[in-house]
Each structure stands twice: as structure tokens, then as C-alpha cells.
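Worked Example 4.2. Read the sequence first, then its C-alpha cells.
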Amino acid sequence: MEDVVTDAPPPSRFSPEDLNNFAVPPVLPTPILVVSPNPNPPTPRLLIVLISPTSLALLSHLPSPPPLHASLLLPDLPLQSHTPIRVYLHPSGALLAAEHSAVPAHRARAAARALVSTLQPEEVLVLDAVRSGAYRGRLAADEPVEGKLETRAARRQGGVGAARGVAALAPPGSVVDGLGAAVVAECEIRGKAASMVVTWPAGARPAEFGVMRRVAVELGVDPVKAAARVSGRAVLDALYT
């Protein structure tokens, strides 16, 4: 009779790759926000997070290049030609956080926490794009759409800045994700007023959206001359189409 205790166990039916799926994932390094030295550090009232190609087009049409205020580094990502997120200091005192390269979904929450906790803005405005797949492909390719999601603090005061004139996103289900949604979630946890405005289509001109026109006026940009561009953003092409 076989001894089930001392006999050698039968060979595993799992391959080594399958067994690795049960291992504890390694702890990812914390994102690093490198802030430029400034003898008079600003106390930002408003942080504008530029994610959609349409909103990034406004950044390239500013009257003068704003100085770099901070850079967000993700140590676990391969070395790139530039950091994923750069924060610029606008002459109005607002901070402009531009997502130059897409932040992976599994790192969005950590990146959002680093931005909000370090910069400590009073209010946050996120400008993102909605994915057609979130509406099961029922969005018209040539019909501009804009809608907003807000934290409870923002709803109590009627919205944040240029988002005050935007209607609520309908339906408000799981139609947004990534860095923008993570920033709004972080602001909700911290009790900050944050509005997230998403637009469709991703490649539309800023002048086609009321929120973009109002943001352009605040930044001193002519929205009619600003054209949406996707330069070096192949990942965004896949995400928002």
C-alpha cells in the first residue's frame, strides 16, 4: 500500500508560468513628483489636468511657453524621452498638468495621489476624452458631445471654473477611466472640489466645445486658431477611438 505522506507527489499539472500567477505581485515604487526650486512657491487655487488631445492643443497655443513647475516620474516604467506628466505654472497662478504620454491604468491611482497630495490645489478641473466603446459605439463621429462628472464638494458650489456651464454626463455610468477618473476619485476622498469634463470626438477642435472656449479665454488662447493635434500619442489613439 502506498504511503501518501512519504511518497513523492505526482508531477504538477500546472506549468511554471501558471504557478507564477499565484505569487504575490511585487510592490511598485511610489511615483515621484519633482518640483522645481522656487523661492516663492505658489499656492495653487486651480489645477487643470490636460489629458485629451483637444485640451493639449490649448497648451501648445499659449501666448508664451509657461515655466515648468514639476515633473511626475514613474520609476517602474521604461525610460522615455520625456516624463509622463509635466506641470506648468501659468501666469494666472493656475497649474497646468499635461499628460504627455498615457499613464498605464494600473498606475493611474498612484499618479493621481502624487499630484493632488503634493500640489495641494483648492480646486481641480480635468479635461479628458470619452471612449466611443463606453457608449457601445453609438456616438456620432461628427457630433460634438461634452459632459461632466463632479465630486460632492463641486456639486455644492455649482461646479469648478469653466465646467459650471456643462451639463452632467448622461449616462453617468462607467464611461471614463484612467488618470482623469483617478484624479476625481482622489479629490472625492480628500473632500476637494473637482469637475471632470469629457468631450467627443477626441480629435475635435477646441472651438467646438463650450468648456474649451472658456478655458482658452482664461489661459489667453484664441480657441479658433487652436487645432487639436495628436503628436506622439499613438497610445491615446487606441484609447479614445
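Now turn to a second chain, presented in exactly the same format:
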Amino acid sequence: MSCLQLLLILVLCVHVSCCCGLDPRKDSVLTIRQRDSMLPMIPPTAAPKPFLPLLAPSPLAPFTNITVPKVSGQCLLNFSASESLMSTTAIDCWSVFAPLLANVICCPQLEATITILIGQSSKYTNVLALNGTAAKYCLSDIKQILVSQGANDTLAQICSVRSTDLTDASCPIIDVTEFEETVDTSKLVAACQKIDLVKECCAQTCQNAILEAATRIASKASDLLSTDGGRVLPDHISRVNDCKNIVLRWLASKFNPSHAKELLRGLSNCKINKVCPLVFPNMKHVALGCGDEIRNQTACCTAMDSYVSHLQKQSFITNLQALDCAASLGMKLRKSNITKDVYSLCHISLKDFSLQVGSQASGCLLPSLPSDAIFESSGVSFLCDLNDNIPAPWPTSSQGAASTCSKGVKIPALPAAASAESGYYNNVLMLSLFIAFAMALLIFL
């Protein structure tokens, strides 16, 4: 048994002894998350069910300032001016839970933090990128600072962040003055100054303005106007994508870090909710159990439950991602000659695609809008839906992967507030969630 496993067992013992003394009337996480006005879509067949907080283990030492970071002294980014931003990132990427929250919370927040740090520094350096040497020092310093506050020490690997991501890559313009002479900056700011987090993903008002600006500065490269058979060269597409990062940094320099973070996280969630992050293993045993027009319903559902259980061990996903995952799996099953709706037959719901928690093994779906983990005296918490049982929709023969902008199933973008009577139940649930997670992590590690 490793030292980390022993540490987790010790944390479990400490948490169990402390949790029994919690005041069941205190629901601070639920109170601050009452944002009913941000519920654009509600399930048509039932009232919104409560979303409950999920607590990670309390740290054995204070979460902030755990150690003194060993910074290089060679990075000119102003970390002190973004202290709150760095703290939020450390909590979002908290040690053991970072891989489970990577896709939805941790990595989008880390990417936003890097963009804002470079964007804010451009107000003094007049450049929107770092050179290769400075990028290596700065990425190392960012990691050291975050780890010193409790973040996972393999963040760069978890989020696939490289020092080159802090440079200009292939974008030809990084000078702020030249950027502002090339781009219609007033149009860009007007489109992105205040985005509707619900509507932006489909309307793409800000995203189109960013693409237009990126395309404009990318065209400064002399070879970009060449095409091959009427198709844009791959190098051009890559250069435009690199220039999008430059545009985002410029935008981050025009807003305060809090506003910039809201913008960047909102835009990243548009990409997050478009694809299913799960890896689908081989489904031969499902095809065998559910083939032949499903002669044996028990055998079919046993095979489906076994298959879905593998998906449930991967990561937390949002409710919209779950819809995409259900559509993707459904199409794969159809290609395996399973034509009957096995979702309905086997009672598969959207939450069955996310990580399972609690003694009742309930799926935990994160909200489709950006959210952060919260550090409290009782530990690190984040919100997920443990109660909505929205059936997974079976795709039709002509249907492809689910489109975020044309969902046939209505699901809320943010949690609904839980009732006051559920306070004691919440604390019991939080304890069982913690025990389940601690045990799962011991197996995982």
C-alpha cells in the first residue's frame, strides 16, 4: 500500500469523525447557488429536482499557503495582481480530484488563467505572447504557485499544457499596437464585452467576432492566401487557431480578471458541451446480448449495465455532454445492429454516463454553464445533479451526434435550489459520497 493510499485512509478517518458534528441546518453551498433566473430550460414533465453539493475530503493542513512556491524569478507575469484568480484555479484543480474534474472545471480554468496572465501583462510589455525561454519559466512558475496552494502537481500533463501554448505559435502578430491597427477592436469589444452564457454557444456572437479578428491577423502571413484545389491549406487553419489565442489575450487585457474569466470560461464551455469526452470500449458483448431482436431482455440489460459501468468510472461530465454521450453510444449500438431502444428497455438515464457517487450509486451531472469548486471549512465542494432522471434519448436512424443547439430533451443549465428540509439528509449524503469517493480513489491509485 502506497503512502498516498495510507494518507487517504487517514483523511477518511478524520473526515468521518468531523462530519458527524456538522450542523444539519447549515447549507452554505446551496444558499449561494440559488440562481433560478439562470435556468433557461426546465424538464417538461416535472419540476426541477434539487442539486446537492458534493464534498471532497478536508485537507489535513490549511488549503492556501501550504508551501512556499519555488519560482524561477525569470517570469515577468504579475502573479500578485491575479492572486484571487490563481487561488480559484488551485481549488478547481485540487490535488486528487483534478483528473476527475479536468474536462469541465480544472483545465478550462487553468487555460483561462494563463490567457489572463499574459493578457494583463501585455498592458506593460505591449506584446501578447512570451518568447520560448520566458514561456518555460512562466509555465513552471504557474505550476509551482498552484501546487503550493494544493493543486495537482501533474496539471501540465492532465490538461496537456505546454510552454509553447504561452508563445505566439504561428500567429504573425503579437504586438499590441499592430494588433489594434489591424483588427476592428471596437467591434470585437462590443461583441464580447457582455455575452449571454446560454445563448452565446448557439448565436456565436462573440465567437464569430474572435474568428474574424483571428483570420484578419493570420492573413498577414504571406503564404496564407494560397489555396489547394479551392480548399484552405491546413497551415492556414492552424494559424487562425493560434491567432484566436492572441485575440483572447487581447480581450483579457481589456477587462478586469474576474470579467475576463467569466468570458473565457463561457466560451470554453461552448466547446466542452459540444462533444462527449468519454472513451467507448469495445461493445461486442452488448451486441451479443442485445442482438437477434433482443430475445432475452435480462441478458441484454445485464450487458448494457456492465458496459455503462465502464463509462461511469471515467470522469464527471455536464448534462449536455451526457446528451452527446448518449447520442454517440446510441449510434455505435445501432451500427452494431441493435435497432431497438435499449435505453428505455434497460432504464438508462443521462446521469448514468457520469461518475457515480454515494451509497446508492447515483450519477453526478455537472451544470452545463461554467462552475467552480469552492473551498470551505469542511473541504472542497462543487455542485452536481444527483436527482434528475432524464431518460437517455435513443437516436433515430437518420440522427447523428446530438447538437447542443437542437436538443430534443429539456434540461436545466444550472442547479435549482434545494429545499430547506433537506439539510440533515444533505449532510448524511455528503458523508456517504465522501466514503464512496475515498474507496474509489484507493482502488484507482
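Notes for the reader: Strands lie at 52-55, 227-228, 231-232, 317-318, 356-357, 362-363, 365-366, 374-376, 379-384. The longest helix spans residues 98-125.
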